[in-house]
Amino acid sequence: MNQLILGDNLEILKHLKSEDIDLIYLDPPFFSNRDYGAIGKNANEIQTFSDRWSGGIEQYIAWLKERVLEMHRILKLTGSLFLHCDWHAAAYIQVFVLDKIFGRANFRNQIVWKRTTTHNNAKQGAKQFDRVCDFIFFYNKEAKLAKFNPLYENYTASYLAASYNKQDEYGRRFKVSDLSAPKPGGNTSYLWKGIKPPPGRFWAFSLKKMEQFEREGKIYYSKTGKPYLKNYLDDMSGVGIDEFWSNCRFKTQEERMGYPTQKPEALLERIIQCASEEGNWVLDPFLGGGTTAAVADRLKRQWIGIDQSLQAITISKQRLQKQHSIFSMSLELNNKT
Asked: pLDDT for 151-169, tens place per residue?
């Protein structure tokens, strides 16, 4: 059953089964040396958590490391972990926590999330570039076994207009690509409808494959008779998402719960979709405003959300109740404090 758990995540993690979770997303304190508060019903700020460390970076790393050790234990061999942080301790986290526990060979990406626009702090006297990005470290439990679903974005209108600028007799849009190649690869020097490849080049496909393209109507001929391969728009998935995420923002004002450090649903959608399947278990040990639970629930994943803040659990519960009819929710609320 899906669970919201109030308590110390270290103690709760210790009681979870080994190799039982498919995906972990954690957004821990960032070593910012600040106190954070949420806005209550009467516009009063309620302190939710403190990010202050009297023992400095060594205390912070030791605190985080013992928790990530438990997360590594409960991850399935096919599982993945996404750790969200910012500039304050990113280098320390990767070197002294993630590389030590997961192994450098299981490091997949350092995702850069552009969380806001520049504030022109230089005009206020800042002697540095504006900080507008967070980092998300993506590690597998076992890289050779891990599941990963490639994600794609739609082409821009300008790209479509410039590239997919042709249509066949059925109205299908396509672009063309060269059927020649700089290196030979078998029987690739033949004549095709009386045409040779350009000087110093060869056909990119065998004669048998070219004949198949012709039967399938996939060859486009220029005015000079030169053949090109048709690439249909409706056969393409889109632009593959890379590790710079600049468009994962809050979609509506209603999405904001008033919780500090809340992350947009679009960000968690991308993480959950790429590293899990329907029915998989998703864990967030620093649940905060409940974004991970809300998105996992909507995407038909099973989930566990942990937080030591009563305000965080209350906000998360309200958010999930708003998303669902309370009578239809499969949810258990536990207090482990």
From this structure: 999 999 999 999 999 999 9
The pLDDT tens digits of the residues spanning 198-235 come to 888 999 999 999 999 999 999 999 998 999 999 999 99
Phi, psi of 239 (to 5 degrees): -90, 125
Higher pLDDT, 159 or 257: 159
Q: Where exactly are the structural domains of the chain?
A: 2-151+241-335, 155-235
Indicate the residue type of 76: K
Q: Rounded CA gap, 57 and 84, in Å? A: 17
The candidate with the shortest Cα–Cα distance to 76, out of 267, 273, 266, 277, is 277
Task: Please report which residue ranges of 45-133 form alpha helices under DSSP H.
Answer: 56-74, 90-93, 99-102
pTM of the model: 0.84
| DSSP H or E stretch at residue 81 | strand 75-85
Residue 259: is it exposed, middle or buried by C-beta count within 10 angstroms (0-12/13-18/19+)? buried
Fold of 2-151+241-335: Rossmann fold (3.40.50)
CA distances from 280 to 67, 90, 173 (A): 22, 28, 37
What is the dihedral angle through the alpha carbons of 82, 149, 209, 187, rounded to the nearest 10 degrees? 20
Q: Which two tokens stand for residue 23?
A: 């995906």
Q: What is the gyration radius of the CA atoms in the chain, in angstroms?
A: 26
> Measured between alpha carbons, how far is residue 52 from residues 90, 132, 334 in Å?
16, 22, 27
The span from the first CA to the last CA of the chain, in angstroms, equals: 20
